[in-house]
Amino acid sequence: MDYGAGNLGSVLRALSALGVVADVVREPGAMAHCGHVIFPGVGAAGQAMRSLRDSGLDEALIAHARAGKPLLGICVGMQVLGLHSSEDDTPCLGLLPYRLERFEVDEPVPHMGWNSLVPNEANSARDACFSGLDEQPDVYFVHSYQAPIDPGCESVLLASTTYGQARFASAVARENVWGMQFHVEKSGRTGLSLIRNFLVAF
Amino acid sequence: MHKKRIIPCLDIRDGKVTKGIEFKNNVDLGDPAPLAARYAAEGADEIVVYDITASVEKRPPDAAAIERIAQGVFVPITIGGGITSFADAAQCIHSGAEKVSLNSIAPRKPELLTEISRHFGVQAVVLSVDVARDASAPSGYRLFTHGGRVATELDALEWIARALPYGVGEICINSIDEDGKRQGYDLKLLAAVRSIARVPLIISGGAGSVDHMVEAFRAGADGALTASIVHLGVGSLPEIKRILHEKGVAVRTSL
Description:
The complex is a heterodimer. By secondary structure, chain A is α/β, with parallel strands linked by helices. Helix content of chain A is 31%, strand content 27%. In chain A, the strands form 3 sheets. Chain A has a 6-stranded mixed sheet with strand order 1-2-12-11-10-7. In chain A, 50% of the residues are buried. The radius of gyration of chain B is 17 Å and the shape is globular. In chain B, helix 1 packs parallel to helix 3 (63-71). Chain B has a single domain (5-246), classed as TIM Barrel (Alpha-Beta Barrel). Chain B is built from 11 helices and 12 strands. Chain B has an 8-stranded parallel beta barrel with strand order 1-4-5-6-7-10-11-12, surrounded by 6 helices. Chains A and B meet through helix 1, strand 6, strand 8 and helix 8 of A and loops of B.
């Protein structure tokens, strides 16, 4: 899905490397024909939500998810699947129960670079998502806002990551709706495997 | 845990990868796209591509070449050389780069740092500085531009301190004195920059062994740019990472 600000090219190149044929969806009507939808986002959550609302893609994403079809949000794409972001006080899509807060750590923000995922054994999607990967694989992050692991977030937590004093949700999943805070399309062979695992899980 | 980065750097001249000593005497190492893909597959945490003659020849980076490199590289890509406008930077990013590196243009047009970081995020902006020791500069280090060919009036440390508020996501420090000598990085320079900058620091110029990288990481570097250590077959990337891991440096070992 292209909402006009995503890291679309990198995601398409990653899909192409996996031998996957992808269509780019820019309008809500086209989403009804899609099987898996990948929603890559960059930039600010507020701007992303405005673009989604202006184009009607917000309703299309919600309808896609409610129909039980697989959806993967990447980076800001994962963030806006949640309830709310404190970035510009933005109400989000509400598909998953977490909130985004700015990092408050002694380390530099944005959190940028490679960091490890600690899979959450309690999440039923864990085996499907991490199949074939190292126990705590490293992936590539660039973000200033993060989902703290409160009880709501914990219920959909798929993997956590620690940066400075902050432990946050680096991947989430509930049934057909998955989210990854890191740039899965720029996370080397691990990232390509995670995309493939999402595609074959449904 | 947050990881230290090993970053192979491809210097491009006339479309081919080249490697010089003290920024001169270049040898041709071939097509950048397959080399970049190989390094990425072997565990490079990022790939940096510098068009080393673009700023001298006053032309923008080659978008088609960036696209070709991006086809086979699934780790972040930084492009430098010849970026003199917001449009040049946007072209690089739309062609597949995650970051742009500004060097010669930055002292003349620091507001470009602001323009790019406002639009693409501060993480997309790398300030690259070519630095040489110079007793007549207040800090003992002078800023050079144009691939180390042109000495500026600026003290290197004063320039870095002045550039940071414009919107810099990280700094790449290139030591002209140590480049290609394989005697180790300029750790004094690294410490001096660390004392004034909180952003990630990438050190470049002088690595001849993995121990040199260990020293730099312990001295506060977040990433090490490496050309000769990889090109000249001193060690492969997996070997370098294995040794760093054994010496207690947190590196990405999963591919």
